[in-house]
Design brief:
This protein has 6 helices and 2 strands; from the N terminus they run H-H-H-H-E-E-H-H. It is mostly helical and 158 residues long. Helix 2 crosses helix 4.
Length: 158
Amino acid sequence: MQPDHEDVEKMVQAIFTLTSGLERARRRIPAASTVAVLQIIAAHEKIRPTAIATKLGVHQSTITRHVRSLEEAGQVAVIGDVNDRRSCTITLTEAGRAEVDRLTQIGLERFAMFVADWEADEVRTLTRLLVKFEESKAKVGNQTLRPAGRRWQAKKEL
């Protein structure tokens, strides 16, 4: 049986409540954006600043500042690109990996508190449904992508 309008409306309200609460919590963490940059670098062997900016949906100058502070803290290494002197790749140092591990543990402990009185099956069900939701969202997103290029340059049918 397909969900009706009220089912979808309640789901949307629950998702928006959850995401806005997570966003408020993230904003209360002084270095949350730096943590996000660290996590992206940790997920990639070598990554360019432009790729980090794209993944976070921010301007590259923002990433430059974060990377500079992470480099000064000894958490990342910035390696110039020999083929393109304007670019570089960024990797985690051992100190950066230790920081990512430390922050990950703190986050996991926090989320464990959120579900401390849940049954394991409830956590697994939520996880399965969140993954399914993300897959459905990605599928719909791929089906509704606009064609590449500038719309005013598209050939008009006469």
